[in-house]
Amino acid sequence: MKKLNYIILIFSLLIIPLLGQFAVSAETANSNNKNEIKRNINEIDDITKVVVSEFRWKQKTKGIPGIFDYVEINNKLTVDIKDVRIEVLAYNSKGILYKFLIPIKGEIRGNSKKRFYSILTPILNLFPEETMVNVESAKLSYQSDNLKIKAKNAIKINNFDYIVENIASEIVQVKELDFINESSNYFKDLVFSIEFYDEKNKLINSVPFKVRGVIGPKEKKVAKNFQIPGINIKYFSEVRLSVFKGDLIDAKEYISEGGDSKLVDESNLRDSRALPRKDIKINDFKIINKSKNTIGLINIDLTNRSRFKYENIVLSVGFENKSGNTFTSKKIRIKDILLPYSTKNFINAEFGLVDNDFAKINLAILSADMIGIVKEVKKSKPNNMIKNKRITKDLKAFKGNNELIILNSNLGTLTSVRVLNVSDNKIFNPVFEIKLLDENSKNLKTLLIKGEGPIDSKKERTYRSIKIQDFNSYEYVNYTIEFISGEKLK
């Protein structure tokens, strides 16, 4: 008996550490899986991890729909995916490209390959001598929402105080809508659905409406005194309100849109990896030359929203006909450098020989080489105050004539304003006037807010986290915002 107890004791001492390691490993894997789900909830961010590993034509005769015998897709992500769209680049013997997209229904498990058979294509405009197949996009597939990454599972309605004054007006007057985010996620522009039921509990009609703005983890929001139009019903017995949807966003976008910095863990603001398709934004572009049988030229304005330094930026150029269909595409390679947190206009980028007439083009970021990284942008430290005082003494008033343009604003307890300085001066500490308006555009309240710091000439800047005292006490329907004054160097 003693020998048996001794064996059990030795076995326990050996197995318990292994169980502990297994538990830690499982917890780490589960955490990684959660992060992967959050990153890819709207659409797979890093599509380079989903690739076409193999394919074979079954029928590719010109003038009729083509058929792939099979297309094999390798999902290198740890999460399951669905609704994959593949991009087919078909070249004939003369090197002319025909491009089209094919949606593929079905799911692919994480870290696995799957073959899809008898994939039908559009009518082929040429006989493909050479074919390339890439994954253009994919969506996340998941059965349950334990993480509450869908707004309808994360947002709880605390109070909905409304009046249906008369059905003929087709308007619901909302006195107060009180709701809270019970999840650890961030959302933007929530869409609610007001539903009307008869006495038999049958749905008569439902009308969606949007509450603009952002909401963070465990944050409570109250929207007051607004109307919901379009209530086209003759009678109803009961009214219910539900959350329909909302955009899942990350902590950075939450802060940039005026969210409360107290609700954000600073570690969530750091870029963990380079994702050029997400980091680089196409602001604008202008075709400089599109004459047939010449080299096409285009100016492209790009913004790098990350802390990564990029070069060799590759963009896809889709050429559209008058019907809006993309009939061919090419690539642009920009060999220049795009610095972190910067905007740059690339002049006369070439997109190859113009061999067809086209109505317009569409652009998309394909890839870029990450060649460097900078530390996170940190708040000013006290030792900068001496320099700031010296600058203040060298400033004088600036009152530009529409030279500081407001591009976007988000009003809240912490307000953000994105502006463009079109003047030839570096502008410091701009002051903005906000007018809170009622439903008849009558001014209810005038507020002045100030952006701290400079904005360079011909540059954009977003002034974030501008605090407005007692903001939630103001009741308004709409607002206007304009630049009042600032300072410039003497």
Tally of helical segments: 5
- Strand coverage percent: over 45%
- Could you say how many structural domains there are in total? 5
Radius of gyration: 28 Å
What proportion of the residues is helical, as a percent range? 10-25%
Q: Care to count the β-strands?
A: 26
Distance between the termini: 95 Å
Q: What does the overall shape look like?
A: globular
* CATH class placement of the largest domain: Mainly Beta
Structural class of the helices, strands and pairings?
mainly beta
User: Average pLDDT value?
Assistant: 81
CATH architecture of the largest domain: Sandwich
CATH topology of the largest domain: Immunoglobulin-like
Largest sheet: 5 strands, antiparallel
Extract low-pLDDT stretches: 22-29, 377-392
What does this entry look like structurally?
- The structure is a single chain.
- This protein has helices at 2-39, 151-154, 251-256, 276-279, 385-393, and strands at 50-59, 65-75, 81-91, 97-108, 112-123, 130-140, 155-163, 171-181, 186-197, 203-215, 220-229, 238-249, 280-289, 295-304, 308-320, 326-338, 342-353, 360-373, 395-398, 404-410, 414-421, 427-437, 443-450, 454-455, 460-467, 478-489.
- With 490 residues, it is mainly beta.
- The chain has five domains: 1-39; 47-140, Immunoglobulin-like (Sandwich), CATH 2.60.40; 151-267, Sandwich (Immunoglobulin-like); 276-373, Immunoglobulin-like, CATH 2.60.40; 382-489, Immunoglobulin-like.
- The longest helix has 38 residues, at 2-39.
- It is globular and about 70 Å long.
- The N and C termini lie far apart (95 Å).
- Residues 22-29 and 377-392 have low confidence and may be disordered.
